[in-house]
Amino acid sequence: MADEGLHPPSHPWPHSGPLDTFDHASIRRGYQVYREVCSACHSLDRIAWRNLIDVSHSEDEVKAMAEEFEYQDGPDDNGEMFMRPGKPADYMPKPYPNDEAARAGNAGALPPDLSLITKARHGGEDYVFALLTGYVDAPGGVEVREGLNYNPYFPGGAIAMAQTLFDGVVEYEDGTPATASQMAKDVCTFLAWAAEPEHDDRKKMGMKATVITVGLVALSVYLKKFKWAPLKTRKIVYNPPK
Fold first, then answer.
1. What is the pLDDT of residues 135-159, one digit of tens each?
2. pTM for this predicted structure
3. DSSP conformation letters of 39-86
4. Which fold has domain 2-197?
5. Per the database record, which ranges form the Cytochrome c domain (predicted)?
6. 83 - beta bridge partners?
7. What digits encode the pLDDT tens for the residues 5-41?
8. Domains of the chain, residue spans
9. Residue 91 DSSP code
């Protein structure tokens, strides 16, 4: 089990039910945790600024956040590349220009992209939550190499990423107490949304499809019983003329 890591406990995520949608306030808080804590090492390649509009932030807020970052663009009329403020259509900036730089900045470990992390790891949000909150001292007899940290939920038990979530490390703008477990829950919700931005729309479409399907089935039963059945069971007798 040590090679595979402990199985994470299951949590009742608000969006896990067949008719449940995301907690959008939690998504907003989770983005704040990602931006202030996680984005120093982890990228979010598949999410553009515009994806946040009407999900966790307004259009004006997204434009302002994007403009805080510089993006390379071009070439211009002189064939030169240039830097410009970000736009909602731009994707989230990467913390490192390439994988080699990322490894160099993390003692040889490559921080994974978080766009699909809740889908790429067995256990999804439960695993990420357990990993973020599961740092403990190594038990007796277990040696952890220098530069690594003990976490029983990580395969092998030794992980390069140090514990990053501590009570109060983020100050939520909505006044929610920023405990380590609250921040872990919020960033897991944000990452679950990042893996499935279409989640809420898909469930709404599924509900509409279910209503339409039930209506069509009811109509089919009615037609079968009251329209088609008499035609199916009738008998036509031909009496030839004498």
1. 999 998 889 999 899 999 999 999 9
2. 0.88
3. GGT---TT-BGGGGBTTTB-HHHHHHHHHTSEEEE---TTS--EEEE-
4. Cytochrome Bc1 Complex; Chain D, domain 2 (1.10.760)
5. 25-177
6. 72
7. 899 999 999 999 999 999 999 999 999 999 999 999 9
8. 2-197
9. B
42 known ligand binder? yes
Nearest-angstrom CA–CA distance, 32 and 205: 29
41 marked as binding residue: yes
Neighbours of 89 (CB within 10 A): 9
Which two three-digit tokens encode residue 201? 């729309």
Question: Using an 8 Å Cβ cutoff, are 23 and 14 in contact?
Answer: yes
Amino acid letter, residue 220:
S
For residue 84, the cross-strand partners are: 71
